[in-house]
User: What shape does this take?
Amino acid sequence: MPLRKIRWEELVVDKRIVPQIESTEEVKKTQSFIGRERAVKALRFGLDMDKDGYNVFVVGLPGTGRKTFVKHFVTEYAQRKPVPSDVAYVMDFDDPQKANTLFLPAGKGVDFKKDMEKLVENLTEKISKVFEGEDYKARRREIDEEFESEQERITKDLIEKAQALGFLIKFTQTGVNYYPVMNGKVLKEEDFTALSEDEKRKIEENEKKVQLLIEAAVENVRKLESLYKERVRDLNRYALLFATEEFFSVIEAKYPFSDVREFIHKIKEDIIEKVSSTKKLSDLEYYFRRAYNVNLVVDNSDLNCAPVVFEDTPTYHNLFGKIEYIEREGMLYTDFNMIRPGSLHKANGGFLIVDARELLVHPFVWDRLKKILFSKQLEVENIDTAYGYSTIATLRTEPIPLKVKVILIGTPEIYELLYEYDPDFEKLFKVKVEMDWELDATVENISDLVAFITDYTRERELLPVRRGAIEKVIWYSARLSGDRTKLSMRLG
Assistant: This one.
């Protein structure tokens, strides 16, 4: 038979192998992977490998259902994995320029945040009542009177000893002044000049003794003030712990986790320090709300398995998070409350799916992603700070241990370019999943294609597809392949 050009009308798949249904409403089998046994096996291998570098690169042509396949398979796979912890940033009371990390069981984070907000709401009122109580006032008055009495004794002793040496002591706002006295009168400069050498020498010797007495008295007062502050601090500590113990004990019992216990301990110490050094409690209300807040960046309360995150716009900040700023009195200000999470935060403990081309076109993203995957540590750092374009003082976040499987989806060209020109690529993405773009027109594959059509329409809440339309899609798939025995997957 001589060769001839085939007409498109001849590219018809045998209708007898098309499922006998009137529309996709009758289809029960969904989430099919359309004859992709090889891709399924490779992807499952990559997901099963719990070792460094076994991230996945899915290679396929656009329009072949790459993203749908990966999304469905990984979502189904994630059902067998546990829900990871909630993550929150809180203040580091030892270093306000640093944010600490709290980890709580999934679902506990939002409850802990609400409980801390309730505690702060009642904190100022509760503390005020303690300091206004008669018991506290009586004990504080006792400490004040003891301090004043001892200070008066030191002062009186200094005055008497200086007087015995012929000097008058006067206390001013700038310190202690002393003046030589003779015959009940302060010596003027001309009177001192008229004295004999023995009298002058005697006064000068006594002056040195008075100076030593003043130094000793000043040191004693300093020690007394230190002791006074310590006693007031101890009283405040006792009063504050008594006043707040009810709140904190409830929280510590409800959240018996080491991170929470350490955080609560730091808050107790901070309350004592701030209250002891502040004259008006009302000045602390704003501070309490900011410093004791819980910035919940990962809330997994709605999950029942490991997270699967598909990042459509993989910019630097979308992936890695950012630190926001506000202007305050002409200065830029930030704190741990203004840390925003990225997709890696949300995908931690699960899976992150990213389009390779979209990732590569955004500046610095590929470089930062590699560093994070190598270190297995996630810190929030703005792009300008990370690459030295800004000298503004900023926060440092405590690194979060990262356990995530990254799945890139791209074309064969992108895969080859990365493999050829980036030596880090093969160290981090050791699993290659190749997507077939053409399949045999078998009963099983056509059945899978119908399942794919069903998935596609149901996900987008479209009307059911009738049998005639299904046959048209199958015919169109065969036409794209140029072979009635084949099906093209480039239907997108």
